[in-house]
Amino acid sequence: MTVKQDIEDLKQTIHQHDHHYYVKNSPTILDQEYDALLRRLRELEAAHPEYVTPDSPTQRVGGKVDERFKAVMHPVPMLSLDNTYNIDEVRAFHQRVLKGLPDIPEDSIEYVVELKFDGLAVALTYEDGLLVRGATRGDGLQGEDITANLRTLRSIPLKIDTEPFKRIEVRGEVYMPKKEFVRINAEREAEGETPFANPRNAAAGALRLLDPAITAQRKLDIFIYAVGFLDSNPFETHRELQEQLAALRFPINEHNRLCGNFESTLSLIEEFRDKRKEFDYEVDGLVIQLNSLAHRKQLGETSKFPRWAVAYKYEAEQAVTEIMNIVCQVGRTGSITPVAELQPVLISGSTVSRATLHNEDEIKRKDIRVGDRVVIEKAGEIIPKVIRVIEPSGDREMPFKMPTVCPECQSSVYRAEGEVVLRCVNSACPAQLKERLKHFSSRKAMDIDHFGPAVIEQLVDSGRVKNFSDLYTLKLGEVASLERMADKSAQNLVSAIEKSKLAGLSRFLFGLGVRHVGQRTAILLSRRFRSIKVLQETSYDELEKNDEIGPVIAESLKAFLDRDTNRQEIDRLRELGILMEEQGEAPESGGPFESQQFVLTGTLTRFTREEVKEKIQSLGGRVTTSISKKTDYVVAGTSAGSKLEKAQQLGIPVLDEEALQKLMENG
Predict the structure, then answer these.
(1) Mean pLDDT, to the nearest integer, of 109-115?
(2) pTM score
């Protein structure tokens, strides 16, 4: 036998053992035997480097990747799924499927139900059987090239059979097993490092590390669930396609189910409600999708969601813990928020040690005290909050009181009439400045990458940065001298700050952090007034006349722009090169629904809420969540409640779905 053949045989043998160990969870040899095979392969490849190929198991941990990941365009967009949170919404999805497939008998419609993993979506591209690229989902149209890191996942085959596909892109969810998450956090805490918030964040962070060797140590795993692109498609169903993927040694989750009727999909929702907690990976819901690929093609998709699939998300999990202390934190607008420090407890896959208490009125209403045992919940499985007290502490004589001065700068505090929030009066408060800088540099604002909390903390505490404009005067040497800031990282931050000068007017307006001016309002203002200078010269009355602005936003914006310190700061930012004008020509009239406001209520069956919202906006209208005198139409589905009653009381026209469709068609 030749050396080349010996190497090929070793590679194939190790690939087979990887599949049994990492995919089937049933190893066929001892670890020592596996290590001996891998060691023998390394020795042969070291002696004969001309035979080293990218699909070799020794190449899973490669060299350093580029510091800035390259952008990758997906051949087919990676759409997200429309979420549902109750059985009625799942039934409404099924009704939309039936209406979209009028010629298909209901008893011939099959669904595939799969677990919805709480991980990171990725796409893997194979050409002539070899893994050539792995990318994150990104914005759905393009992601980041993280091939080197994904190659470290041993359940991902580096080479597949070239039959029946010469080129194929498969999609899956990378996750961190629960036991691995616990192990890593224990190590981080022992070393004095901040533990990861949840397994998903830990997995996402590991995949974006610049050193694949560190990624390999995190022991991530993956489930493949779909195909994005393939050069030939002889399959008629999703189930057939997944069976082929399994035959090619891709890890397919064992709990996928084929349902011959819709009612059986509903029973699976209940079956997995508690069963999902037994798995060594986070599951936050189920994905319900049509099995027939022809039916999928017939239904198509919106710009965001496929019409042939929906995600059912389980309700937020709750846990019981004890309040150890109540502290106050200061936000970017000076708001002082009480926060409960908790006995750490695991909930929805992450360890929770803090929860917001919102405001003093909320604390009084729930009668929350230090020492109480309470029920906490993750709103949307993200933000922890205290639901209720279940076991009061013994001492009820000393209720919690909000501070009489700012806990950060000791300045006076005030509570505006009609508000429940206490605020610090000192606009130079270091805590406010840190939060404002976080907001100013965030992705939806000026998008300054590498400008994290640790950097902000040092710059503010040292007095080097006292406002936004100070950021644009930072020198490379100053940044490089910060703790834990390598020369390359410092250069990246300085470059990101320079790049942010061209972020544009709407991002700049949003980044300024004016109260009541959110992202959408900033976009509307930038399109209407075109420059910050024009905005500064616009009167309150002129601002208030604009749709979607109103007196509250107009008053807040005008007060902000008229303040001398803010005018001076804006002037300085302009001198430093910040773009404060809207680029391109002004948009034309918004369409037949221009200036009209719609409110949606009840369960829609003909369309999804997202489809209706997109269509109304494309015709120049606006969809709001509450009814007011400015509301032009209310669109009512089944089970419409108080909003429908209020519309009838106010005499606002009410449309059913058929009437809405006619209105959209006729403009």
Answers:
(1) 96
(2) 0.55
